[in-house]
Design brief:
The chain is built from 3 helices and 7 strands; from the N terminus they run βαββαββαββ. The chain is α+β, with helices and mostly antiparallel strands. It has one domain: Roll (Hypothetical upf0131 protein ytfp). The longest helix has 10 residues. The chain is globular and about 35 Å long. It starts with a strand and ends with a strand.
């Protein structure tokens, strides 16, 4: 079964996609309302090695419609969604949301 995964950060990087999923993902631009991006310092060595970035963006809910996060909505398999869960550090949680277009999908946001 296909899943939709929204990325506003390192899952858009080719190297991260290859090392996480074994392939480049296909997707389309999408916008998430009611969130803003902040920075999160990453300490997980595996994630640091894949992304080559010490700070990753993290989406935080604001509830304000004017706050928006732009990114890519990728179509992936159930197995690839589990692989994405393994990649993300414990500061993130995966939730299902509705995007500006009306499509629904998974996104990693700040863990509450």
């Amino acid at each position: 079964m296909s899943q939709y995964l929204f990325s506003y950060g390192t899952l858009q990087i080719d190297k991260v996609q290859i090392e996480t999923f074994g392939r480049l993902l296909q997707g389309s631009p999408e916008i998430l309302p009611g969130y803003r991006l902040e920075s999160l310092k990453i300490t997980d060595d595996k994630v640091l090695k894949r992304s080559d970035q010490e700070y990753h963006p993290i989406a935080k809910a604001t509830g304000q419609a004017e706050d928006q996060v732009k990114g890519m909505l990728f179509e992936i398999s159930d197995e690839e969604l589990a692989q994405a869960d393994e990649y993300e550090v414990e500061d993130y949680q995966r939730i299902e949301v509705e995007f500006v277009s009306g499509r629904k999908g998974w996104i990693y946001v700040e863990k509450l």
